Amino acid sequence: MITNFETACHFDLLIILLIVPLNQVHKNVMNDHNELKNKIKRVLITSLELNLHENEMEGLSELDELFGLDSLAILEFVLGLEQEFNFTFETQYIDLEIIRNLDRLAACIADQIKKS
Questions:
Q1: How many C-beta atoms surround the C-beta of residue 91 within 10 A?
Q2: Are 77 and 44 in contact (CB under 8 A)?
Q3: Beta-bridge mates of residue 101
Q4: Among 1, 56, 106, 114, fewest CB within 10 Å belongs to which?
Q5: What's the average model confidence in pLDDT over 79-107?
């Protein structure tokens, strides 16, 4: 006969088995997202030949906070991203509000990578 204590222990074990993998998945997703954002910063620096180090862009959410993004710079940046991540941007994603925002851009690129 199973007691309430044994049932509670089994329930606690079940919760632990469910939560730990979910937490690990969340950590992996966050690490992937952060790594993706770091790659985007590197592409920006190299494609626009900026005299910046990746660390100087720490905490930036808008990529043009330190410098302006004119149409030529956007084109070079988009081409650099397409080469780095080996895909072609869908038309709806070539939008200044997406291109200049690091989190939106990372989400867009992750979506494009999944589709390709």
A1: 7
A2: yes
A3: 62
A4: 1
A5: 90
Report, in angstroms and rounded to the nearest whole number, the Rg of the chain calculated over CA atoms.
21
Residue type for position 18:
L
78-92 residue pLDDT tens? 999 999 999 888 888
Distance CA 109, CA 89 (A): 8
Two tokens, residue 108: 């867009």
Q: Is 99 within 8 Å of 74 (Cβ atoms)?
A: yes
C-alpha distances out from residue 24 to 12, 21, 28, 99, 113, Å:
18, 5, 6, 30, 22
DSSP per-residue letters across 26-84: HHHHHHHHHHHHHHHHHHHHHHTT-S--GGGGTT-SBTTSSS---HHHHHHHHHHHHHH
Distance CA 68, CA 50 (A): 11
What's the confidence (pLDDT) of residue 22? Answer: 42
Give the C-alpha separation, 4 to 1, whole Å. 10
The tokens describing 91, both together, are: 């038309």
